[in-house]
Design brief:
Layout (H helix, E strand, L loop, with lengths): L1 H41 L1 H5 L4 E2 L6 E2 L2 H32 L2 H16 L2 H24 L13 H25 L3 H9 L4 H12 L1 H17 L2 H6 L16 H8 L5 H35 L1
Antiparallel strand pairs: 1-2
Length: about 300
Amino acid sequence: MNNKSERIMAAVFFVCGITAIAAVFAICVYMISSGVPALAKIGVIDMLFGTKWAPTASEPGFGILYIILTSIVGTLLAIIIGVPIALLTAVFLAEIAPKGLSRVVKPAVELLAGIPSVVYGLLGILIIKPIMYRIETMIYAGDPSHQMTGGANLISAVFVLAVMILPTVVNVSETAIRAVPQHLRNSSYALGATKITTVFKVTIPAAKSGIITSIVLGVGRAIGEAMAITMVAGNVVNLPMPFNSVRFLTTGIVSEMSYSSGLHRQALFTIGLVLFVFIMVINIILNTTLKKAGEDE
């Protein structure tokens, strides 16, 4: 009976594994087959390095360089702002907070992960955009060369993304920190190190694999977000400057797919292919980094 159960479960696991591989392969084939035709018609240089996006104009332009740069810059800034806050929060929950306080703060952080993206966008409209508009007005008052955005700009999108990645980075990092063996901490204390020194010199380095994983997952969340940043970024193809209305790769697809056709629609699939390549590159970096971290340990 046991052997039969094991064979059945082995078959189930095999089918699940093959299904997952087939799904990834199918997605790859679909994205490549859908995104490459536009590149062939428009030209790789003209599309990936062009700056004019006007697919419905009499002389259409399909340059997505500014859109690519916006996604890179916006995600990078969100990581720079969000990761230190998330990492320190994870350290607080795992190492410093009393158990009673940790029981209150941890569910609150986990609740952030369950909030729909549109709610983050609404909070961005109600809280961040008015603040950014006041700052923009003070900086660019009397400057006719600057087109006022009403607070819908790159900085607003960055702050929303930074908040959205917090629960992912906090939860994974906290788990990694708690998994560090206690004898490492005890050894540090025995050498005369303080608690804070132990945290930054022993615990965090020992948990670096999990922390790196959390950061990469945060990057994936940020670069793949669409709804929230559509509401706060302005959705205009511009150079990604702090107070410019901008368009991300995801928002470019969402905002135009409903009415696109022909070459315009194919170009949107190419944007999806570029986004897909970004995610693949991030996963490769993750696997390489974790492998090196494991070899160092």
